[in-house]
Predict the 3D structure of the following.
Amino acid sequence: MTQLTITRPDDWHLHLRDGDSLGSVVGFTAARFGRAVVMPNLKPPVTTAAAARAYHARIVAALPAGCTFQPLMTLYLTDNTAPDEVDRAIADGLVVGVKYYPAGATTNSDSGVTSIERAFPVLERMQERGLVLQLHGEATDPAVDVFDRERAFIGSTLELILKRFPALKVVLEHVTTREGVDFVRAQGPNVAGTITPQHLLLNRNAMFQGGIRPHLYCLPVLKREHDRVALVEAATSGSPKFFLGTDSAPHARHTKENACGCAGVFSAHAGIELYAEAFEQAGALARLEGFASHFGADFYGLPRNRGAITLRREPWTPPASYAFGAHEIVPFRAGESIAWRLTTAGCA
Ligand code: DOR
Ligand code: ZN
């Protein structure tokens, strides 16, 4: 196959940042996706429906002219989030989920939840009202090996959440392990997982190939080959429990090429093309549309997009960097080849 037309996809997990940085990156996503679930881990975090509405307005204002791209907003869950905020968010209409960062797990997670019990009243209300819980599924106990954090989170926290709130809609975001895949598969239709392009295309060896590769460092970190294989199987299986979430997470070059580099891979410039490559490698291009354009919308109870995009099998090379406010970002595959190219002009 050399050309592929699919329903316009959505990105169910994205970091857009704010200010000038937002203006530098949002166009990449809007050119490919109809909608994106925008993460709330700004400084300060987006903790209220009012703050989400204000952030939504800044994103829309930063869009290239003529775009109808729709940001889907999220609230950042803290120890102090009031259950009534769930009602306010639903009444406001822009918020599709509440993001749970275990405190200290990742970038700007300091205000996250310190113990799951504290969030029970909010989770109760979310279960009642059908609002989705989006999980950064990593245990934060420093004694847990960094490669075991997803498995430890499932055993220590996720099982507890689902036992207590069996009807809560939960997305285990950026699933990275075989155990994570198996867990999601074993749950009812209220539990789903998103998968990033880097976790489909790479294993952890890539982070150390010929030297340390800071631009491939993200959280959860890349895992073993047998995990990657399980992720590819899940994404290409046709199961509606797995769908696209790039977790594109831009950081200025100097903050990644640093003695203590930030976590995050920027992939929005090729946010659908990289998945096409992974699905083609698996001989499953015909399954891309379900994963990228149908299953996420179905899970969130939103209509599927009406328009379409077309990709052509024609290699191209992303530049060494893109502008990022006053700084620059190094995109995934900078200076290397990507097999598929977007041919649809303009944005959603
Ligand atoms: O690699 C990551 N980057 N993982 C996260 O959970 C957060 C994200 C970010 O905001 O940069
Ligand atoms: Zn993320």
